[in-house]
Amino acid sequence: MSSRRSRISEEEINELISKLQSLLPETRRRGAGRASSAKLLQETCNYIRSLRREVDDLSDRLSALMETMDNNSAEAEIVRSLLRS
């Protein structure tokens, strides 16, 4: 079995770039114009960083909320059930 990677064609790369572009809110707002691949990848990195900050913020807020709740309260049980799903 060969350890060489199969090559991705330029067409496949363009298709993947188009799919990526359709997933990013910034490029959807901008419309049908096509950004360069480098700019698109930079926007992707920025978007991922933004999502990570948002998750961290929500996690901190949830932790603070859980600290103020009575562990046996109905609200605490609802939050726990939401976290499990």
Automatic annotation (TrEMBL):
Q: Where is the BHLH domain?
A: 1-51
- One biological-process term from Gene Ontology? regulation of DNA-templated transcription
- What domain of life? Eukaryota
PROSITE patterns reported for this sequence:
BHLH
InterPro entries with a match to the protein in the record: bHLH_dom, HLH_DNA-bd_sf, PRE
A Gene Ontology molecular function term for this protein is: protein dimerization activity
Q: Is Transcription found in the keyword set?
A: yes
Mind listing the UniProt keywords for this protein, alphabetically? Coiled coil, Growth regulation, Transcription, Transcription regulation
Coiled coil regions, renumbered to chain:
41-75
Q: Which family does it belong to?
A: Belongs to the bHLH protein family.
Q: What is this protein called?
A: BHLH domain-containing protein
**Naturally occurring in which organism (per UniProt):** Musa balbisiana (Banana)
